[in-house]
Amino acid sequence: MNEPTPLTAAPPPATAREPITCHVLDLTTGRPAASVAVSLTLLRPFGPSAPLTAVTSSDGRITHWNGEAGSSLSEIFTNLQEHDGGQMVWSLKFDTGAYFGIDRTFFPEVEVKFFVDAKSGHYHIPLLLGPWSFTTYRGS
Q1: CB atoms within 10 A of CB 68
Q2: How far, in Å, CA of 102 to CA of 82, rounded?
Q3: Tens digits of per-residue pLDDT, 57-80?
């Protein structure tokens, strides 16, 4: 059996990607928006749930959510797919007031509600953010 050498290193272990991720870009700087607090809440069915929370990385991304008592977004998706057909409505809330400063933005928070089908794979929601406007779309 061949052992990996420095030139043929073993691939990194596969990590499970969260079913919902997001990305925030600051349109005033043209750069990722770091340290934006975001909450993710299941609205339907069985909602609203306790929110999952995260803070954007230096790259403006959220790739992992923190839940109460170790609850996992992947577990929620699996349970709903098995018991309810997987049709869901979720809400992302971005704390834009804290990011820009309450007196420097029109939006104290931005909320994006969206439909999810648990069988349709990964959902990535980018937020293009300025102090006076925002836009979003389903990314990949």
Answers
A1: 10
A2: 43
A3: 999 999 999 987 667 788 877 777
